Protein: NAD-dependent epimerase/dehydratase domain-containing protein
Amino acid sequence: MASMVVIQHKQPSSIVLSSSLSDFNGSRLTASIQYKRAMKQPKGAMRVTASSSSKKILIMGGTRFIGIFLSRLLVKEGHQVTLFTRGKAPISKQLPGESDSDFADFASKILHLKGDRQDYEFVKSSLSAEGFDVVYDINGREAHEVEPILDALPSLEQYIYCSSAGVYLKSDYLPHHEANAVDPKSRHKGKLETEKLLQSRGVNWTSLRPVYIYGPLNYNPVEEWFFHRLKAGRPIPIPSSGLQVTQLGHVKDLAVAFVKVLGNEKARQQVFNISGDKYVTFDGLAKACAKAGGFPEPEIVHYNPKEFDFGKAKPFPFRDQHFFASIEKAKSVLGWKPEFDLVEGLADSHELDFGRGTFRKQPDFTADDIILAKSLVLT
Structure:
């Protein structure tokens, strides 16, 4: 079935949400998303700066997670922003803590190009007709998905790609740096091949490699996995010692980094790791989630994954290894730094999403019960 072009403005809906939360010392922390800076700006507010010139920007994707926050920043800076999606989800919806006026302004300006990026002929014809200056590719997974975009836009000023720190070759020497060896066999090899394609085509490209991303509206069960168990008052099953070190970056900090590279000559044909400032153990993450959500400190049960057959059930949302990356290059070259520390970021996510009763997936404790049943027998 042929794809259809729909360039349209969306009308605002009517949900208004705001929030605050208690920190683990009993004081109050502001956890609402703010888009207009007040005299004293709350922690984690979405910061924007004046843009030197307006760009005609295409975002591939933009209605699930990263693009929702990125598109708002770009519109605030005065750019003309179009989302390329299949049209299965509204291109604008009011976010928790977002004012009516801010949402109405965004919804009146965001544009939509409806189509399937796998329909390469449609991509070429529609993008060529529109003539975008900049492309943000948020949902690209394979290099062959990018070629039609480059073919359609020979005068493209910049291609900004969302890659992944998962492209790095597993190593005993951490953190991962941008110049470290990559793994051509990783499950993110398509992203690695896309970076190689961009380099070979000689375009002005920039690639960001997040580690684990978290925050409101997260569709991956990162913090949500812990919140479900904490809310149910269940023990937290964590593989091996629980001392495996990992790293999380807040989605709003990632969105700011994406804006920082726009039109930035220092970002030309460069790769940047983007994540939080601190590393955390699996056990520490469970405790941080509890603090962020106002739950009691959890009971943690360690298990040996090799002793179990979980079938199709996924027992844990993180790779069972040390996995973290240096963000010093982004800080020094781009002048970017994460605004959220881990507990504050998890509190922001909980208060604006899970704590309101909204989440992406229902809890599945199948693997937990297998682990806990064996643990009870051993004790």
Observations:
- The longest strand covers residues 80-85.
- The chain has a mean pLDDT of 88.
- Residues 189-201 form the longest helix (13 residues).
- The two ends are 60 Å apart (CA to CA).
